[in-house]
């Protein structure tokens, strides 16, 4: 499944969760997630964030290793 479709699918799950729990209020000036609903809400929220961001940074550790190696070589030179 494409990355874009994955985060959108997870976003739909969060929207369904919010719709099925009218105690959750997300408005321009108010965000209220009752305590008994928070764990699941933030679990779904984090899933969306991870599905959206992780693919963008999947190569970051390799790039950082290369940058570190080049820095060490430049410092030695």
- Alpha-carbon distance between the two ends: 46 Å
Sheet with the most strands, sense and barrel status: 2 strands, antiparallel
What percent strand? 5-15%
* Overall strand count: 2
Sketch the topology as an H/E string, one letter per element: HEEHH
- Strand order within the widest beta sheet: 1-2
Q: Which structural class is indicated by helix and strand composition? A: mainly alpha
- Structural Rg: 20 Å
By DSSP (H or I, 4+ residues per run), the number of helices equals 3
Short description:
By secondary structure, the chain is mainly α. The chain is built from three helices and two strands. Helix 1 (3-19) runs antiparallel to helix 2.
Task: Write a concise keyword list for the protein shown above.
single chain; 77 residues; mainly alpha; two-stranded antiparallel ribbon; 5% strand; elongated
Could you explain the architecture of this structure?
The structure is a single chain. Strands 1-2 form a two-stranded antiparallel sheet. It is elongated. The chain has helices at 3-19, 35-53, 60-76; strands at 25-26, 31-32. Helix 1 (3-19) runs antiparallel to helix 2 (35-53). With 77 residues, it is mostly helical. Helix content is 69%, strand content 5%.
